[in-house]
TrEMBL record:
It comes from Nocardioides baculatus. Gene3D superfamilies: 1.10.1740.10, Winged helix-like DNA-binding domain superfamily/Winged helix DNA-binding domain. The keyword Coiled coil applies. Pfam families: DUF6596, Sigma70_r2, Sigma70_r4_2. Residues 190-290 form the DUF6596 domain. Keywords: Coiled coil, Sigma factor, Transcription, Transcription regulation. This is Sigma-70 family RNA polymerase sigma factor.
Amino acid sequence: MPAETTTDAATDAVHAAWRADSARLVGALTRMTRDVELAADLAQDALVAALEQWPVTGVPENPTAWLMTTAKRRGIDHFRRADNLRRKVTELEAAVRGEEAQVPDLESQVDHIEDDVLRLVFLSCHPSLTADSRVALTLRLVGGLTTAEIARALLTSESTVGQRISRAKRTLAKAGATFELPTGQERTDRLDDVMAVVYLIFNEGYTATAGDDWMRPDLALEATRLARMLASLAPDEPEVLGLQALLELQGSRVRARLSPTGEPVLLEDQDRSQWDRLMIRRGLAALARASTLAASGTPVGRYFLQASIAAEHARAATAADTDWVRIASLYDVLAGAAPGPVVEVNRAVAHGRAYGPSAGLDVLAAVDPADLSDSPLVPSVRGDLLEREGSYANAAAAFEVAASLTRNEGERALLERRAAECRLRLAE
């Protein structure tokens, strides 16, 4: 019916505006109120008002400007009710009078607004917060996801997510966290934390650690959107560009990572015609910009190197065309720049492809079993290398160990299938 269609269209417009610009709204409001919890509440109030009014009055010409104006006015009302904050009322009223004329055209304030978003990203990853809290708060304030969406993405309850977010806001207030951009070494350290959170969100979506699904694409795409935003806000940071490139290039494979029946498909078996060419172009362009900055002397690190590895896969028309020698050399550099057991396991894969399974097994043998004792990563890679070597009995046993360790049902099915295939090869 027409009324329902109008309501649906208005609701869709509200949600579209929120997802596109919630970070700008909360960032601008935090700058004005100096209170991230209040800013988030005011933005939510404006969202609720839009859901109530737009189906009746119609979608405004500039939805984001409407949300911003409504939130600011509600901020004024809030401060009017607090006698000890009357000074802020005057400041906010002046801000609204001075800005409302420009609000319909937010592009004229883009530098200011984007600075607000960058501040919000850094605030969400304040060192006083735990890793779990940083992820939840970033998805909430910067990603614009609802508590229910975050709970589904992280495979936890809404109450748990709500508690993490509330606790994070209280922690920020107690720590006296400011909305100003950190400088010097503090900024460098915090930027590393920001990128680590975005990368963690992507990885959880790209290969879920638990649950029934092999992937949660919406979460991976949200992380990629955050990486694009961060790259637009810090365009002279090669590691930020490297992170964007890495997520674009890996994210381009999402459609090809599942068969038509929903089964996981490994990289070498994927139909590369399903890879997202636009994301590949974006990723290679970001990597090229990072390379230009690196050539001028700006240091690079793990994200740039991982993106360079992902680019080798993206450039290969077929799996057989992959330059594994180049990838192995990049992993050798990465192992020096960002040493760790996961890097070593991936280096074993690369050396196994470049120089033969025994070379990969030699690299894998140096990984301390205690470092990844509860992860299926080491036994699954060992199984792969042993299978390529023709040691089918040992490969099957390794795949079975890996299957017993994973908490992801899709990965378990894949590992059990590979173990069964190795058993069949033995029977031939």
